[in-house]
Amino acid sequence: QAKAEGKGLARRFDPAQFAAAESRRREEADLRRALDAGEFEVHYQPIVDLEGEHTVGVEALVRWNHPERGMIPPIAFLDMAESLGLLPRLGGWVLEEACRQAAAWQEQNPGFELNVNLSASQLGNPDLVEEVRGVLDRTGLPPSLLVLELTESVALVDLVESARVLGALKTLGVRIALDDFGTGFSSLSHLGALPVDVVKIDKSFVQAMQEGSGASVAEAVLQIARTFKLAPVAEGVEDATQASRLRELECAQAQGYHFARPMPAGDLTDLLARQAALSS
Ligand code: C2E
Ligand code: MG
Ligand code: MG
Ligand code: MG
Q1: Where is each EAL domain found (predicted)?
Q2: Which residue puts its alpha carbon closest to atom 21 of ligand 1?
């Protein structure tokens, strides 16, 4: 009897469910179309040296500039792009576009660094190392100026394999950053196993920091970075209090709305020109 009921349920037409599936299908088709239509853009958020507050590099952050819906943030489409298998292509495009742009910025700003995020499927792609090598060759960006960011959750899908791929990437001369550091659960035990150069302190810890208060997670993460000889970058710095507290804790670099929001390449070029004019 239960079986008969189950069958009946499965057959019954559910308009809400149908509409949801329809809308998802439309959105998937839209996303595939967008990649061919060139609707993605890379924005760049300054990474500043906390001492002088000048911009020493940028993080490349993808956006979807949709003809009807306007600028769509990555959180609204990256998971879908990943599940549709579009991220190797989209991520490859972001990498090449950002490296080309960073190579152009080198002319006026030698040593200016570029951070690019890698997804799980990119890390799992056996051609990744060759792809990165090809992009560096084509764009002329010095490998030492490229930092590839991955989150702990991405790195921990297969720790041994991640360590191997990251090691191979490092032979190209690029650096590796652990993104959103501290939000995973096994950070400490795995830090030693991965060839990482930079840790990005997650914004939740930066924002939980109180001036003058005792130990904070941010402080503990900075201590870990020191112990493992990793360069710390604080993410999500939104006010001067957080910036000065991080300075006291000797965090060298930071990123956040307090300094600058992610912006189109042209605006970043203007920012670099203003910065050069001020310092000359
Ligand atoms: P993420 O790599 O941790 O990047 C930092 C995110 O924090 C960015 O969000 C940035 O706009 C935001 N942010 C920066 N400063 C502040 C601040 O002061 N306060 C707050 N509340 N947020 C701040 P965005 O651009 O929306 O990107 C979200 C995430 O999407 C990124 O987090 C990254 O995981 C992913 N993502 C973005 N672009 C790419 C990409 O090209 N490839 C891959 N695989 N992932 C990407
Ligand atoms: Mg990142
Ligand atoms: Mg992050
Ligand atoms: Mg994040």
Answers
A1: 24-276
A2: 236
